[in-house]
Amino acid sequence: MKRLRIALPPLDELTAESPVQFAWLDRAGQVSQQGQGSLMQWANAQAEFFLHPRDSLLTSLELPQLASARIDDAVTCAAQALILGPVELMHVAHGPRESNGLVQVGWLPKSSLEHLGRVTTPLKIKVRGLYPAPYALPVGGQPSAAFSEGYLLLRHSVQQGAVHPLGQQALDDLLATGVEVQQVAGDARWSGALPGWGLHGRLQPAATGGWGRALACTALAVVIWTLGLNLYAARQVDEGQRLKALMSQQVRQAFPELPVILNPLQQARQQLAARQSGAAAEPGQRFTGLLALAGSSLPSLAGSVDSLTYAQGRLQVSLQPDARSPALAADAQALLAQAGFSASRDDQGWTLGPLTEQVETDADEEAEDE
């Protein structure tokens, strides 16, 4: 079946006598005839109408995966920020969400739609569709581009299109970014596949439902905010648990005499205060801590210990006569120093004691040498 396509002038200038561009498409979608005539010569016909570029108001929104009703709400909320004037006076339509997350949105004043109806109804012209200007262009592997009265029309895909008022400058800027476009002219300008949406659908009720839309947008914003807050709280809990585990590990290394780490910050403060005031830990705890520290820091103790002697806060580890014990590694020295202890080697084995004693011993040795 042949199809008639008509390119409209600006809707605020449209009359039954207005000159319009038209094209007939055959069953294969190819242009069989095109030309210009007045709108009234198509009385009693069925036609697909394409808006003038000035009336083709388009944008793309990137939305997450949502149900159809949620996409409608999200588009309505976004339109309130994009449209200059009350959204209740506009007819807003949108396409489906594509795989890249983009949703094409278009809008038109309801007064312009009503005016189009007042012109076409007396002529008994059946409007089979009303689409923005770029959707007459063909769809290919590359964006299609054409000029119309100084405007640049772009057709990116079946659902996506754009109108740039700067015309040639907009095309030059696009080509400068490395994007390849297919410029079309002549019959090819009419042969595009129709999108899955248009501006010919039902009109939004005027002056009603404003509070409902506002409440729906508010509810959607609250849901998104709540989800974001819960996600942030979960991340903070995980970070807190990680920091607590790290602090517990550091306190356990610094104060090996502590049998259990429950509150690492408080316990570390208590131990530091005790050391600064000269208070000593319980003998059993000090011995257990030194023993654990010796096992983790002193080299080659397994199977080589002959005896252990603990007195006055110092642990003497005597080795068997044939045992070999290499020098203390740098990381082991750092571990001991972090815990507030030091280790010294003699003929019998190792001696672990408070770090202050080692500093005093070294100072005495230097004084004797002088």
Give structural notes.
This protein has eight helices and 16 strands. With 370 residues, it is of the alpha+beta class. It folds into two domains: 206 residues, Nucleotidyltransferase, domain 5, CATH 3.30.420.380; 89 residues, no CATH class. It has a five-stranded mixed beta sheet with strand order 3-2-1-4-8, with no helix packed on it. The chain has a four-stranded mixed beta sheet with strand order 11-10-9-12, covered by helices on one side. Strand 13 and strand 14 form a beta hairpin.
CATH architecture of the largest domain: 2-Layer Sandwich
Described by the principal axes of the CA atoms, the overall outline is rod-shaped
**Order of adjacent strands in the largest pleated sheet:** 3-2-1-4-8
Q: What is the radius of gyration?
A: 41 Å
CATH topology (level 3) name of the largest domain: Nucleotidyltransferase, domain 5
How many domains, as an integer?
A: 2
- Element-level helix/strand string: EEEEEHEEHEEEEHEHHHEEHEEH
Which percent range describes the beta-strand content? 15-25%
Uncertain runs = 203-210
Per DSSP, the total helix count is 8
CATH class of the largest domain: Alpha Beta
End-to-end Cα distance = 114 Å
Biggest sheet character:
5 strands, mixed
Helix content: 25-40%
Helix-strand category: alpha+beta
Question: Count of DSSP E strands?
Answer: 16
Global mean pLDDT: 79
